[in-house]
Amino acid sequence: MRGPAGFLLCSLLLVAPHCTEVAAQEVQPDPKTPCANWMGGAPGYPGHNGLPGRDGKDGKDGLKGEKGEEGMQGPKGDGGEIGVPGREGPRGFPGYAGQKGEKGEGAFVYRSAFSVGLTERAPHPNVPIRFSKIFYNEQSHYDASTGKFLCSIPGTYYFAYHLTVYLTDVKVSLYKKDKAVIFTYDQFQQNNVDQASGSVLLHLSTGDEVWLQVYGEGDNNGIYADNVNDSTFMGFLLYPDLDVH
Fold first, then answer.
1. Residues with Cβ < 8 Å from 128, sequence gap 6 or more?
2. Which domains does the chain possess?
3. For a tag site, which of 78, 200, 216, 244 has the least CB within 10 Å?
4. Where is it located (predicted)?
5. Diameter over CA atoms, the chain
6. How far apart are CA 174 and CA 214, in angstroms?
């Protein structure tokens, strides 16, 4: 190729390597980027927060601090439950005797009792037997003239009789207020002396009467007494009715 066109082409070929070397010296790509700066894209968005890291190991205990000031006293708490009783302690020494107290009023003792014996033989039937031998009748609640015990203190009484039987049979009954309460019968044996007895507890009110009498006809009145054989009748108050007194 000759003429001006050829000259121009040769000039360009000579100048191009020089320009390329100069450009390579002035602009160098950042080795940390994937492309040269003249080929880099727009900046990206910030990434998401990463996961929390693991807890670190506990550090060593520090030195003990100084004692702080005492705080204010708090309110009183609720009472606790009662605990289990403890063991019994040792026995103490006897104490000194106290002063003598004043004399109190004596309690009234209710008394009512009698014990009597027979003096006559073969008492009459169907009437009170009159026991005229007095062993005890301090309160005079038994009337020897009638053969009856009269209740002056209401309460519970005990009555008993022990009779010698001789010559004929004996059938007796203990009466309270005109009504027979108990019966005793003994069949007499010839050439023999028998005994007949009975006892009972009765509740009496003031004014009640108690007595013994032969029950039936005269052939049942073999109650006997002499200087060596007794037939007795007795009774006494066990305890009074306190609600009445």
1. 146, 147, 148, 175, 211, 212, 213
2. 113-240 (2.60.120.40)
3. 78
4. Secreted
5. 208
6. 9
**pTM of this structure:** 0.56
Q: Taken in order 196, 202, 206, 207, is the CA torsion positive or negative?
A: negative
* 146 Cβ contact partners less than 8 Å away, ≥ 6 residues apart: 128, 130, 211
pLDDT, mean of residues 130-138: 96
The pLDDT tens digits for 188-211 are: 888 888 899 999 999 999 999 999
Provide the token pair at 113: 């009792």
pLDDT of res. 31: 54
Give the residue from 210, 48, 244 showing the smallest Cα distance to 128: 210
Instruction: Tell me: pLDDT of 13 over 70.
Output: no
**pLDDT given for residue 235 in this prediction:** 98
What tokens appear for 121 in the block? 């033989």
Separation CA 121–CA 37 (nearest Å): 167
Question: In Å, what is the CA distance from 127 to each residue of 172, 195, 202, 224?
Answer: 11, 21, 21, 16
Question: With bands split at pLDDT 50, 70 and 90, how would you rate the model's confidence at 231?
Answer: very high
List of residues 6+ apart from 150 with CB closer than 8 A: 141, 142, 143, 207, 208, 209
Q: Give the contacts of 176 (CB within 8 A, at least 6 positions apart).
A: 202, 204, 208, 209, 210
DSSP 3-state of 171: strand
Residue 164 tokens, joined: 């010698």
Question: Are 216 and 178 a contacting pair, CB within 8 Å?
Answer: no
Q: Give the bridge partners for 172, in sequence order.
A: 184, 214
